[in-house]
Here is the input.
Amino acid sequence: MSTSRRGLMGAALASPALLAAGGAWAQAWPARPITMVVPYGAGGNVDGVARVVAGALSTRLGQQVVVENAPGAGGVIGTDRFLRAAPDGYTILLGVESNVMVAPLVSPNTAKYALTDFAPIALLATQPLAIGARPDLPANSLDELLSWGRTQRDVTYATSGIGTSLHVLGEMIKQATGLSLEHVPYRVGANILSDLAAGRIDLAILPTPSLAPMYRDRQIKILGVSSRERDRAIPDVPTLPSNPAFAAAEMIVWQGLFGHTRSDPAILSRLARECQEIVKEPAVLQRFEGLGVTASDLTGERFGSFLRTESDRFAAVVRAGNIRAE
Here is the structure.
C-alpha cells in the first residue's frame, strides 16, 4: 500500500476521534479572554454599544471580553484585522452596516471582502437616521421640503463622508423624490452641526442622537426619521416611510456581532444565545437608551436574512447613484 493511501486511510479512521475532540474543545470554550474588534475609534456610539455588550458577555461567559478599537479607512482596517484572525472563537467583530455592507460596495479595491465572509451572530442594536434642516429653511415638513426642493437648482445635504450609510440614505431620498440633492461630505461631525445651525448647508443626515439636542433647543429643524416607527427621543418627528414620496428611503443603522464562517457552529450558537439574553437585561436596556439605540433580538439565520435583504437594497442604490469612495 502506498504511503499516500495509508495516510488517507489513517485520516479517515481518525476523523471520528477528531470530531469528538473538536466537540469537546467547543464545550471547553472559552478558556481564555476573547477579543472584540471594533473597527471605529473609542468614545463613539459604536464603541459605546460594544463596551456594554462586552461587559455583559464577560459576566455570562466567565471570561473577559476585551474591546480592541482598530479604526481607519471607514472601518476597513479593523474589519481586515478581524478577518485575518484565527477562526477559533477568540476573536469576534462588532460590525455596523457601513463596514460590513457598504464598504465593499463603494470601495471594492480597499474593502476586499464580502458579506459572505462573515458569520452573523446577533443584531444587537438599531437606530434611525434623521434629516436635519437649517433653522430658516422654508419647509417645516416633508411635503413642504418636496415642494420647496423642486423649485431649487440644488439642495445641499451634509454627511460624515462619501460612501457612508448616511450618504446612501441621501441617495435613496434623491432617487425616491427626484430632488436635485448635492452631497457635501464632511470629515468632522461637529462641523456639520455648526454649519447647519448657521445656515451654510440646507440639510444634514446624521444619527438621531447627534441632531436631537439642537432640535430641542430650536437651533435646527428635523423633518423626518428614516425608520418605520417614530424615534422615542423625538416622537413629534414623522417617519420617511409614512410619506408616499419618501417611502423608499427607509433605513436603520445597526450594530451587530459577527464571527468567522469557519468557526465552530457550537461557539457561534452559544454567543447568539447569550446575546439574546443580554439584550433583555434591564441594565443593558438602560444603557442602550442612553446611547439612543434600540435593542434587537435577531440572531443567526434571521440576522443573516436581514443582512442579505438590506445588502441587496443598498447595492441597487449604490449602482443607480454610481457611488464610489475610491
Notes: DSSP finds eleven helices and ten strands in the chain. Residues 1-23 have pLDDT under 50 and may be disordered. The CA atoms of residues 230 and 236 lie 8 Å apart. The first strand starts at residue 34 and ends at 38.
